[in-house]
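REQUEST
  id: r-88c1
  op: predict_structure
  target: HIT domain-containing protein
  payload:
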Amino acid sequence: MTDLPGGDSSGSAYEPEEVVRQDGIGAPDPFMRLWTPHRMAYIAGENKPTTTEAGSGCPFCRIPLLSDVDGLIVQRGDAAYAVLNLYPYNPGHLMVVPYRHIADYTELTPEEVVEVATLTQQAMQAIRIVSAAHGFNIGMNQGDIAGAGIAAHLHQHVVPRWEGDANFMPVIGQTKVLPQLLTDTRALLAKSWPTT
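RESPONSE
  id: r-88c1
  status: 200
  body:
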């Protein structure tokens, strides 16, 4: 066995028997915990609309009414906008959202299709400038059954990826570590957004 960082100076190896057992607050195990209570807002559905109707109950209808900073909007187009995901999978995870409250990709007008595609390309370019992403997951979850968190208002995810980003935290700890505040990420991406 190897010594754990921060152990005593005697150099004693970590042994499972040395683990301090929990008392009534969970299954005993040797894992340390990184608590992320801010995620409970997402898990509890705090910002999830209660209806499928357009309007202030839909976050994607409400966000464009806010300032760019308050709404975490990175770029506004004529038919769609790019906004940081409030519950990101990776740093820089954003969404391209049409202003029009529609649920299905087939409902987009030809102009909206072009702008969603253009904003997606620009998002990739800006993220590469800011954080040198090695790749991207890009996609839409269509309908509740497909995993759409807000199925009533179409949105396309742009998730930057880096080699080795699936580290032990999400796999073992079921936690994502984000090294930057969303407002700082928004400012960097907005500053680096391509003009064409």
